[in-house]
């Protein structure tokens, strides 16, 4: 019976997306990283022009991925409309970029990468999580980041396993137009919102960055004078004020304070 389970696990990892054969490249308690090839079986909403071309500037690709991820923000979970929480820490941005680049170089025939990131819910650990899912792929001149979930609550009710949170079907996924990723002013011109063909409307959940950015001097700096990420102290003080005025509960205060501190 144990032998059967050992044989079954890799089969599931290679076949868990209906119609798309994907490979599990890396997994941990909080990360599942898959890659897959271009195929006629891809869902219709997915760009079929993905391709990865090796060249002498390959290492700069890793830096570009890391800097792009590190600058992206999320306003959906902020208590204040004019602030954004950083989606990826510097450490996590670097880890994703390193593993992503290595896989592109090792398997250039797999230009699509599916990243699933899990955060344990502090109120109901072991049964409820926050999950972010994004698709990373390269084209002839740029990297694309398509967010399918962003800090999404998933309540399993009962203790969950790795397969429960790390199994995501692209074929059955629904694009959420309301999902919005925030781009700070310091990165505009390097990071852009995607625009569909024959449309001037920006797709806020689809980000792309070109291999040769228009301006990269400010982009590579970790801190920018006017960056919305520098107002951590202000957000903490405002949060404390809301708590002191009894506008939010102690549980809400602690949870939001932890999220703000993690965004540093």
**Terminal CA distance:** 47 Å
Unreliable stretches, pLDDT < 50, 5 or more residues?
1-18, 213-217, 222-226
Query: Mean of residue pLDDT?
Result: 80
- Specify the number of helices: 6
Q: Name the shape in a single word.
A: globular
Find the count of extended strands (DSSP E, 2+ residues): 9
What about the largest sheet?
A: 7 strands, antiparallel
Helix amount: 25-40%
Major sheet strand order = 1-2-5-6-7-9-8
List the helices and strands and how they pair.
Layout: H1 2-15, E1 22-27, E2 31-36, H2 58-71, E3 73-74, E4 85-86, H3 90-106, E5 112-120, E6 128-138, E7 142-155, H4 162-166, E8 191-195, E9 202-210, H5 232-244, H6 250-262
Antiparallel strand pairs: 1-2, 2-5, 3-4, 5-6, 6-7, 7-9, 8-9
Helix pairs in contact: 2-3, 5-6
Describe the fold and architecture:
The chain is globular and about 55 Å long. Helix content is 29%, strand content 24%. It has 2 domains: 218 residues, no CATH class; 34 residues, no CATH class. A 7-stranded antiparallel β-sheet has the order 1-2-5-6-7-9-8. A two-stranded antiparallel sheet has the order 3-4. The protein has 6 helices and 9 strands; from the N terminus they run αββαββαβββαββαα. A hairpin with a 3-residue loop joins strand 1 and strand 2.
């Amino acid at each position: 019976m144990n032998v059967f389970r050992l044989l079954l696990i890799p089969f599931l990892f290679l076949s868990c997306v209906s119609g798309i054969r994907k490979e599990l490249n890396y997994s941990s308690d909080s990360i599942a990283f898959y890659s897959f090839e271009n195929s006629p079986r891809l869902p219709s909403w997915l760009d079929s022009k993905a391709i990865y071309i090796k060249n002498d500037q390959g290492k700069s690709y890793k830096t570009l991925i890391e800097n792009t991820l590190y600058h992206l923000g999320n306003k959906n979970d902020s208590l204040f409309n004019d602030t954004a929480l950083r989606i990826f820490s510097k450490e996590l941005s670097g880890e994703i970029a390193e593993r992503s680049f290595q896989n592109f170089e090792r398997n250039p025939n797999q230009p699509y990468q599916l990243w699933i990131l899990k955060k344990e819910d502090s109120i109901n650990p072991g049964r409820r999580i926050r999950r972010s899912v994004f698709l990373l792929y390269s084209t002839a001149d740029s990297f694309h980041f398509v967010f399918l979930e962003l800090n999404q609550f998933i309540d399993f009710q009962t203790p969950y396993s790795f397969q429960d949170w790390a199994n995501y079907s692209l074929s059955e996924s629904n694009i959420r137009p309301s999902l919005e990723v925030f781009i700070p002013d310091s990165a505009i011109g390097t990071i852009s919102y995607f625009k569909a063909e024959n449309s001037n409307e920006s797709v806020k959940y689809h980000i792309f960055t070109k291999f040769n950015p228009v301006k990269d001097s400010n982009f590579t700096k970790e801190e920018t004078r006017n960056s919305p990420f520098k107002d951590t102290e202000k957000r903490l003080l405002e949060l404390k004020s809301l708590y002191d005025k009894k506008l939010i509960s102690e549980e809400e205060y602690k949870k939001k304070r932890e999220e703000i501190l993690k965004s540093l």
